[in-house]
Structure formats: C-alpha cells, structure tokens
C-alpha cells in the first residue's frame, strides 16, 4: 500500500509539472503569434538584425534609436533566456538575421535561477544560433543590467555575466556587450537617471546609453 501511495504521489507531482509548463507556454503564445504575424505579413523583413529577449528589449523603441537600421524587435516582456530558446524557431530562424542581439537573464535570476543555470541557458540559445542560422550570423549578448529594484541580486547577476563573457571571449561568433559598468555611478550603484520610476525598466537616458554602446560595438 505504501508503494502504491508513493507512485501516486510521483504521478501527481509529474502531472503538476506538466501543467505548469503548459501554463507557462500559454502565457507567451499570444505574444509569439503576434510576432509571427509580423513575419508572415512582411512587417518584419528577412535579413534584419533581430533583437530578442525580455521587456528591456520589448520596450526599446528601435525605430527611434536606430532610424537607419534594418532592425526587428522580437522581445516579449517577462521572458527568460529559456523562453527565447523555446520560441527560437518561430521568431528568429525565419528571419535569417546576420546578427541577433539578446537581452535576458534579469528575470531568470529574479525567478530563482542560479548563475550556472543562466549560463547553461545562454549556451543553449547560442547553440540555436549556430545550428539554425547562417555561419556568418553573430550573437551579441547585452549584459544583465544592474538595477535599483533588483540590486540585492547584483552579485548573482554579475556572476552570470562573467561566465557568459568568458564564452564570448572564446568564440568569434559571440559578442559580450558590457553595459554593467557604464550603468553604475561613482558610488558603485545603479545611476537613478537611467531607470523608469519602477527602478527596473530603462528610462530614455538608459536606452540612450544602451544604444550608444550597441552602435559603437556593432557598427550599427
């Protein structure tokens, strides 16, 4: 009887895990479908530079900051690196970009993922780029930002950044964009003017800084 109870308990937890994964997938489906529609109707053009990741990407007004660039914003707010891995074939592969610019990892650490797991998820995304896109396509990873709201997680975020930076140093197809240090003031803490009122998302000044770094490092 005890053996049967154990099996039933394991089945319960397995079912709960499957249900949780399905719920998570359902959360993003409307956003992903909307991004796919832009690809099929021609709004998002093949050969464009693709920006992908969480809300810091989604809220980036690319036409404003890159008026002459052939760029596509495929960010979806609240997402983690693993979500971009999951939907890669739907929102990145069809566009055959020469360059993918990713920002994510912020929500990962806030959600309880360790730096090791963030690093692992980044490697999975990088592998998607290598396996599904042309050999000349490069991946630029914008460092996980230091924010006022999540400053208590800064050590873990910076640890994940350093692990990813090492991967980029060793691979010609990977580029690490260090926005961490430029976002800190003389006191070693995030500059308030770079953030919106919530202390998490970027202000216009924050996007101005990010844009200057991206343009300088990637010649966009």
TrEMBL record:
Name this protein carries in UniProt: Argininosuccinate lyase
Pfam family membership, one: Lipase_GDSL_2
Keywords, alphabetical: Lyase, Signal
Domain SGNH hydrolase-type esterase: 70-209
Domain of life: Bacteria
This protein's record includes keyword Signal: yes
GO molecular function annotations of the record: lyase activity; phosphatidylcholine lysophospholipase activity
Record flagged with keyword Lyase: yes
Signal sequence extent: 1-19
Stored SUPFAM superfamilies: SGNH hydrolase
